[in-house]
């Protein structure tokens, strides 16, 4: 195993990484492509909004269940076997979705897609950690950030344009040939970078993890629609929390856990995880609140609202590799402080938008906010992962991806609740004064809810900035001890 880690650092497998990149890109792109198409799917299959929402919720749930288990899969199977299996599942799901004759088939297809995509991101991140030495990881992870950030940002714009001109099925038709080609290349060209180990899956851990993370994700995701007092919401959150506590205690007692929680004893990994959680909550505010403000309150078309976010996606795409190289040179702390300062200022200005704010102002603010965020997430995560011994890389990547999923769901639910409560209170206040028409009251109260929630997001981002001051650069010399640590562990 020691020889494998050393050799992978002397000869970087760029061809393999390119194949993994394309697979991960189409998988993440597909996650956000479908959101704008949901009304068209409702019309075609004659299903209600609560049912069609499962196309997104179900996808997220499968991710939440499988990502924690990805550490086991990455250690147990070779990169080649794992990626080909994941890509085959994703391709099969995409094909079934494209030809789905009924809503049930489409939902099953989305679940199959999710099963494939859930493994791709942790696998790609783990291969890059193994393939690059610590002093070159910033640039490598910057390219990884290009995939992770650009794909979901492009999704709504691309699907908005396609839905205006074609059937929703084209969203799967354009992804399918890329998925097939990636699968063919993987079968003929993919080689292994990380070794496989003969470890056994603890089935009870997998069940606890599925109930724990699945319950939390479902409960918090449903809160915005059903309300916190609905039994399905608080019931699944309580069950999920109890299962998760049992899961964590079980992992801490096991010699070879499914997901290693002892990695939090490394201070920079623990700190980077805390910053990433806080930032995920703040980041989701714009993703949820902007479409409501732009489309519902201002009446801007889905296509134009998608275009509004496109410059921000392009800036993030351009900045990701640059940020990675800056990280290698200067470390994560200075980048995080500058990026979070920009994020805080722009988020605060979003809390001041009104009915007269121009389209150009919104574009500039959103783009600047994305510019700030592009300097934070990947450097912070990479800095944390750099402190982990090589044998803990699969656990580090699985933990990061899991925490982002869960914190995103919790953050979204809390922010939607804050917005709804503030909007309802404002509507009652305006109705009692009876100086405006009903339509104006609805818009004014919703705007008030949105701006207040952006202000809360500003305060959340300030917490991340405070934490960033405690970051320290992990010395590349730590990596020279990794081979000994791997030997000791074995």
Automatic annotation (TrEMBL):
The lineage of its organism: Bacteria, Bacillati, Bacillota, Bacilli, Bacillales. It is a multi-pass membrane protein. Keywords: Cell membrane, Membrane, Transmembrane, Transmembrane helix, Transport. Gene3D superfamilies: MFS general substrate transporter like domains, Multidrug resistance protein D. The keyword Transport applies. It comes from Lysinibacillus macroides. Residues 16-476 form the Major facilitator superfamily (MFS) profile domain. This is MFS transporter. GO terms for cellular component: plasma membrane. Belongs to the major facilitator superfamily. EmrB family. It comes from the Bacteria. One of its GO terms (molecular function) is transmembrane transporter activity. Its main location: membrane. NCBIfam families: efflux_EmrB.
């Amino acid at each position: 195993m020691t020889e494998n880690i050393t050799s992978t650092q002397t000869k970087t497998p760029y061809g393999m990484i390119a194949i993994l990149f394309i697979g991960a890109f189409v998988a993440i792109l597909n996650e956000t492509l479908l959101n704008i198409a949901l009304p068209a799917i409702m019309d075609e299959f004659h299903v209600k909004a609560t049912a069609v929402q499962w196309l997104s919720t179900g996808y997220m749930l499968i991710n939440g269940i499988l990502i924690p288990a990805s550490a086991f899969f990455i250690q147990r199977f070779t990169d080649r076997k794992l990626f080909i299996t994941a890509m085959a599942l994703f391709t099969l799901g995409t094909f079934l979705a494209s030809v789905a004759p009924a809503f049930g088939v489409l939902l099953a297809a989305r679940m199959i897609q999710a099963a494939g995509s859930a493994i791709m991101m942790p696998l790609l991140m783990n291969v890059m950690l193994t393939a690059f030495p610590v002093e070159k990881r910033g640039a490598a992870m910057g390219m990884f950030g290009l995939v992770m950030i650009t794909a979901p940002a492009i999704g709504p714009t691309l699907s908005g344009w396609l839905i205006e001109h074609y059937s929703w099925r084209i969203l799967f038709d354009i992804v399918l040939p890329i998925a097939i080609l990636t699968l063919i290349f993987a079968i003929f060209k993919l080689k292994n970078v990380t070794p496989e180990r003969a470890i056994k899956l603890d089935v009870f851990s997998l069940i606890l993890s599925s109930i724990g993370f699945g319950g939390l994700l479902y409960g918090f995701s449903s809160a915005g629609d059903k309300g916190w007092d609905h039994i399905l919401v608080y019931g699944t959150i309580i069950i999920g929390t109890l299962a998760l506590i049992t899961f964590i205690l079980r992992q801490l007692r096991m010699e070879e856990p499914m997901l290693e929680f002892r990695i939090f004893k490394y201070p920079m990994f623990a700190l980077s995880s805390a910053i990433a959680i806080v930032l995920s909550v703040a980041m989701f505010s714009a993703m949820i609140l902007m479409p409501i403000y732009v489309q519902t309150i201002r009446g801007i078309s889905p296509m134009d609202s998608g275009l509004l976010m496109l410059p921000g996606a392009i800036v993030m795409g351009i900045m990701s590799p640059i940020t990675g190289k800056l990280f290698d040179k200067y470390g994560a702390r200075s980048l995080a402080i500058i990026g979070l300062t920009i994020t805080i200022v722009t988020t605060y200005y979003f809390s001041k938008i009104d009915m007269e704010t121009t389209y150009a102002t919104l574009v500039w603010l959103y783009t600047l906010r994305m510019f700030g965020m592009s300097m934070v997430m990947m450097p912070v995560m990479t800095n944390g992962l750099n402190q982990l011994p090589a044998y803990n890389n699969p656990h580090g990547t699985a933990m990061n991806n899991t925490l982002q999923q869960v914190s995103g769901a919790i953050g979204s639910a809390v922010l939607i609740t804050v917005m709804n409560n503030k909007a309802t209170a404002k509507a009652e206040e305006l109705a009692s004064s009876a100086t405006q028409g009903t339509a104006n009251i609805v818009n004014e109260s919703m705007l008030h809810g949105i701006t207040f929630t952006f202000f809360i997001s500003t305060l959340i981002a300030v917490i991340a900035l405070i934490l960033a001051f405690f970051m320290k650069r992990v010395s590349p010399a730590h990596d020279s001890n990794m081979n000994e640590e791997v030997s000791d562990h074995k």
